[in-house]
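Handout, page 2. Input:
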Amino acid sequence: MTELRSGGIRPSGIEIDGTHEHAIHLLRQMLRIRRFEERTVQLYSEMRIRGFLHLDIGEEACAVGVMESLRPEDAVVSTYREHGHALARGMSMRAVMAELEGKVEGCSRGRGGSMHLFDAPTRFYGGNAIVGGGLPLAVGLALADHLAKRPVVTVCFFGDGAVAEGEFHESMNLAAVWGLPVLFCCENNLYAMGTALDRYESETDLSLKAASYRVPAWEVDGMDVIAVEEATRAAAESVRGGGGPHFLELRTYRFRAHSMYDPDRYRDKNEIERWKQRDPIGSLSNRLGADGHLSEEDLDGIESEIQAEVEDAVTFAEAGSLEPLSDLYRFVMSESATGGATP
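Output:
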């Protein structure tokens, strides 16, 4: 472990220190996200999924590593690139797929779609279509737990683009001043939609920005699921123990465009290929294979199980129902409900 600024620590590397069974579990979870999203690309192309669709492909280590380090009572606030977060947190793949297809059986009754997954039982308090929009919500959740003296951590995911938003600085400052139990997880994939990090940030070391608020902050190899899990576990336990907010800069990369609508003309293709050489799934699979803990037959078996789960989710979503027009105003608060005049 290497000491870093503000008392932070950075896991030293790529060795599998735990049991190989746990490493295989991490691999399985990342594969579930990858295969789910690859299937959604097909469904989107067939116009069975509409609206925006932002994929986690390439960033699975962040979702799995962070979620594996949390407890059931912890809270999670996500972004619009949230499928991986939701699945790794334990949400039903059926409910997520049905939501993407706009069906009532979806986790948000088909009203939210890809960017607004929500699941109260797992304390997954939603994606957010607004860049940086989840930051103040996470601070509010953490404040509630702090006042109630609950030993709970609120994890807030956001991208590097959100660091340029005012909400980031306001949220970091307030969380630090009040010593709130929130873990800020910045998934730095080097691009805010189509703008490279060094074109909109004068300081590209984002953990330095967090450290300026006197928040323990450190960078993590976001392409290494074991490094992410180790760093998150250390940070979460420090937060849970009264250490106040912490910040992790998860340095990662998305292999696909910003969204399905994005032609992705702003990135050099060679850059993408270089990052694909560090694919978190391939890297862990190769390490397990080299150590004799994962055979080709084992991997084929995992793939078959995941394929069956994905197709079951598709079948469930296709059999789902669309919300009737008569329910269009359901869950919408009218003025009469707040004492005002009804239009």
